């Protein structure tokens, strides 16, 4: 026999999916802004991709941290 999910479980599943989608968008925006910031700093200081690499790594680290914090909130 198939078990149907209760409306409360369906609502929780949709809510969780929406939060995770928002986290993915947030991650992309943070990394994009970090890359653009690194490119701008390289242009401003006349360096060749030094700040781009630093800012990209920093942006990825920050976005991973933000996603982990969001996952902690979802699980609680």
Automatic annotation (TrEMBL):
Keywords: Membrane, Transmembrane, Transmembrane helix
Tree of life domain: Bacteria
Pfam families found in the cross-reference section: ATPase_gene1
Transmembrane segments: 20-38, 50-68
Name recorded for this polypeptide: Putative F0F1-ATPase subunit Ca2+/Mg2+ transporter
